[in-house]
């Protein structure tokens, strides 16, 4: 398949992308969390193309994207009080609400569930694209299944050139991890996947919030998680990732020792560190001073490791703040839960 690479985000280009959606095509587009691969949410044949292009298991439901809060009722049949409050405070923004679905949303979108994920992205490119399409856009992240989500146009191109009808090359995703998924169908909001809207944010607006138990532990073969995507091995680069967690100085010292040992054995090593104490390794990525900054570069860093043929990579996890949960959730998975704890 020939993929149309759309370099501009002017009205004409986005109208062309919207036209492709209307005609049953699939289009990758930027959002503030990660790039998505979208299709008309009402078009079953188009949705099938998404699953095929990504190699995605069909029991993993898609999020439906809309341009404005006014359209929530088109997708969801009930909008509970907590949903209204979260929309009022944070939409458009990096979160997805799990709501009871409208019958018009096909089963293939929700993998047969009675609920649907609804998201209003902050990215103006994303919203202009959805408006141009004139329909809700069902979209998973725009990566090949199992690979880190794309946070730059070049990542989406690397994974989907030849597999999507078009790719809109927009801005880098500044949040860098996928949206916070919040189940608001019950009394207390439950975070199924942590992200840029934090537990503290939700508590501030709704008075309470819980975090689903699978967020940091992974899901056993025999379990059915509330968020089906949680059971898949995600975000896995070819490089073997180890998380080194604890105090800033202790983790830096430990990583330095581990890298030195690997290098003695001829292993190509890379690090993603918070502290800037340089030492010899093959790829050094420095990310700054908060988990938010780490989130913004994390998926790109995992891709960089692979591009540079890194065999073993160490990620320093030493900061405590509201975005810690979102970063750990992705990191632990990419490391296959290989975590070394050192002291504070
Ligand atoms: O930030 C994001 O959410 C990005 C951008 C493109 O918007 N999208 C994204 O989609 O991350 P995806 O398909 O990679 O992840 C969607 C997750 C999956 O883990 C899926 O299981 C969960 O959302 N999900 C979708 N519908 C659900 C539902 N009705 N109930 C529970 N979980 C649901
Ligand atoms: Mg994904």
Q: How would you sum up this structure, described in words?
A:
Helix 1 crosses helix 6 (124-133) and helix 11 (291-307) runs parallel beside helix 12 (324-334). The longest helix is centred in the last third of the chain and has 17 residues, at 248-264. This protein has helices spanning 11-22, 44-54, 72-75, 81-90, 107-110, 124-133, 153-160, 199-206, 214-217, 248-264, 291-307, 324-334, and strands at residues 4-6, 27-29, 36-40, 63-65, 95-100, 115-119, 137-139, 166-168, 180-183, 190-193, 210-211, 240-245, 269-273, 283-286, 312-317, 339-341. The strands form two sheets. Strands 1-8-2-3-7-4-6-5-9-10-11 form an eleven-stranded mixed sheet, with helices on both faces. It has a five-stranded parallel sheet with strand order 14-13-15-12-16, with helices on both faces. By secondary structure, it is α/β, with parallel strands linked by helices. The chain is globular. It has twelve helices and 16 strands. It binds threonylcarbamoyladenylate and magnesium ion (MG). Magnesium ion (MG) binds at residues 140-141, 149.
């Amino acid at each position: 398949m020939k993929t149309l690479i759309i370099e501009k985000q002017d009205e004409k280009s986005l109208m062309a992308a919207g036209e492709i959606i209307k005609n049953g095509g699939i289009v990758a587009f930027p959002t503030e969390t990660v790039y998505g691969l979208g299709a008309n949410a009402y078009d079953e044949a188009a949705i099938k193309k998404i699953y095929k292009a990504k190699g995605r298991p069909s029991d993993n439901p898609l999020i439906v994207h809309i341009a404005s809060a006014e359209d929530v009722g088109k997708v969801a049949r009930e909008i509970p009080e907590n949903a209204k409050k979260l929309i009022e405070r944070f939409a458009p923004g990096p979160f997805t609400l799990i709501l009871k679905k409208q019958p018009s949303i096909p089963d293939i979108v929700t993998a047969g569930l009675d609920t649907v994920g609804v998201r209003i992205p902050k990215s103006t490119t994303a919203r202009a694209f959805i408006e141009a399409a004139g329909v809700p856009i069902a979209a998973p992240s725009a990566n090949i299944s199992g690979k880190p989500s794309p946070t730059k146009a070049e990542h989406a191109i690397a994974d989907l050139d030849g597999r999507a009808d078009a790719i809109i090359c927009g801005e880098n995703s500044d949040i860098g991890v996928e949206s916070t998924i919040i189940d608001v169908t019950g009394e207390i909001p439950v975070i199924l996947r942590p992200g840029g809207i934090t537990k503290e944010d939700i508590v501030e607006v709704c008075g309470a919030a819980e975090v689903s138990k699978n967020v940091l532990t992974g899901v056993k073969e025999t379990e059915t998680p509330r968020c089906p995507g949680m059971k898949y091995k995600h975000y896995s680069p070819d490089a073997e990732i180890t998380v080194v967690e604890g105090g800033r100085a202790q983790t830096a010292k430990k990583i330095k020792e581990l890298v030195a040992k690997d290098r003695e054995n001829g292993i190509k090593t890379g690090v993603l560190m918070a502290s800037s104490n340089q030492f010899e390794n093959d790829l050094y990525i420095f990310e700054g001073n908060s988990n938010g900054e780490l989130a913004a570069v994390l998926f790109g860093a995992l891709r960089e490791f692979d591009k540079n043929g890194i065999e073993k990579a160490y990620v320093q996890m030493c900061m405590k703040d509201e975005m810690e949960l979102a970063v750990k959730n992705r990191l632990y998975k990419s490391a296959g839960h290989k975590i070394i704890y050192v002291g504070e």
